[in-house]
């Protein structure tokens, strides 16, 4: 597992001068500039928490009678994909279905993991791209381009 954000992204600078410079350099709306001007830098800095993600792709050696689901199988940033809870529920449903359709637990786990891993990789890649974009120097522009493309 790795921490995202501070450790491998754009340099962090929680100070008023950096925020003022950022507001001046970006073509943000007046409402956003007013909101950031009223935001306490100390408040923002004090609630900063690391984001964690498993490497993409995250795979494991098959172990008889054991499998993973939910965050154990595909931990990714919740802020940039919104898929964690949905994937966990889907994992549980797919594992339950596999257990009812196969004669042994090992066969069921094998079938389940054949579905789980490609789906998890796709979602984790999307989340990683979101993290990369969110911490990029041009994050606002990337977000706008993404939203207007869909």
UniProtKB/TrEMBL annotation:
One of its GO terms (molecular function) is monooxygenase activity. It comes from the Bacteria. Signal peptide: none annotated. SUPFAM superfamilies: FAD/NAD(P)-binding domain. Keywords: FAD, Flavoprotein, Monooxygenase, Oxidoreductase. Residues 65-108 form the FAD-binding domain. This is FAD-binding domain-containing protein. It comes from Streptomyces broussonetiae.
């Amino acid at each position: 597992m790795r921490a995202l954000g501070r450790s491998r992204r754009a340099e962090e600078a929680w100070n008023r001068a950096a925020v003022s410079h950022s507001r001046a350099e970006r073509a943000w709306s007046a409402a956003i500039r007013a909101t950031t001007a009223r935001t306490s830098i100390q408040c923002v800095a004090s609630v900063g928490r690391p984001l964690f993600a498993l490497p993409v792709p995250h795979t494991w050696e098959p172990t008889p009678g054991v499998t993973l689901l939910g965050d154990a199988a595909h931990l990714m940033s919740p802020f940039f994909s919104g898929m964690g809870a949905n994937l966990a529920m889907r994992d549980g449903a797919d594992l339950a279905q596999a257990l009812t359709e196969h004669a042994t637990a090992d066969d069921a786990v094998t079938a389940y993991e054949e579905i789980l891993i490609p789906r998890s990789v796709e979602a984790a890649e999307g989340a990683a791209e979101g993290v990369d974009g969110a911490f990029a120097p041009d994050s606002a522009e990337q977000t706008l381009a993404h939203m207007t493309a869909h």
